[in-house]
Predict the 3D structure of the following.
Amino acid sequence: MKRPNPLLEDLKSVLPEIAKNASHAEDLRKVPTENIELLKKIGLHKAFLPKAYGGYEISLPEFCDCIAALAGACCSTAWAFSLLCTHNHQMAMFSKELQEDVWGNNPDATASSSIAPFGKYEEAEGGIKFTGNMMWSSGCDHAEWAIVGFLRDNSEGAKDYCFAVIPRSDYSIQDDWHSLAMKGSGTKTLVIEDAFVPEHRIQKAKDMMEGKSAGFGLYPDSKVFYAPYRPYFASGFASMALGVAERMLEVFKDVTSKRVRAYTGAKVNAATPALMRLAESTHQVNAARAFMEKTWDEHREFAEAHRYPNREELAYWRTNQAYAVKMCIEAVDRLFNAIGATQWMLDKEAQRLFRDCHMCGAHAYTDYDVCAQILGREIMGLEPDPSLL
């Protein structure tokens, strides 16, 4: 769908430079500083920053179009930077005091995360002391803060899934990101030891899904913050898979148009199997985009109406994006399987797209085996399985 998107137009001006850095990002095992500077120069990090701090508060469809385009240039950069952006949306649901801590003196500040609840804590006066080796913190080299997850005992004897926000001065980064795909995302481990976290930097995940968090209602004119945090966080992954798949269509067409079979000298560009594979993958990628645009528009409409989704709507939103990723992976695989052995070489773009697209489907939120169970239970009227994310 064509829609006005000034930020996307600005992004297009820096994409060629970011694409040139894609191999460099893999060599560094993190996003090059130049890429971060280019993206901050056009203000992409302000996508979900509250307007009170100079942010844009753009709609989810506008943001996802940007991330899809960025992923087509360098998916590692898109992965890390998308999360730095969506974490702003999440932190806007924390207390105003936390927001002042993060953005009061530096509105360009961002946060990486490690939100699986693996952290350990001890209660302390006015907050907690947090400890943990928090893995999977994409883009952490370029962030000033971190959002980390833990389970906190409540007064009913149960545990609340919570997030704590911790400044860069209170943790170190373990350089342990050695991956087959998304090599340049810098998804490293945060090492935190007895970091004091005041109460105003802690928030229950459940409250952030139900409009009950400390920051709820802080921005009554906003069209993006009357929304649960998780769909915004998760939709970036589907956007990346879509951008990679769309780029793979271009790469396959370009490679195939020039390809000649080594032993026979036959041109491949008019071979029926190649044409059929390109046609089917094109249909599949277009279908994935249409499906995701419909879902993104629902997110936008709900947020603008200050309407929270019910459980069934959330189940569809969560699982739609996983199914779109599945379609994109199938489309990429169909093309890569027929693009020729030369494209397996490490200096070829096609093999990077193939690897990164599969990584888009490996995240906990895009695991379709999990998502299919979630939606199936909802359709059958069964209670959610707490073992499923």
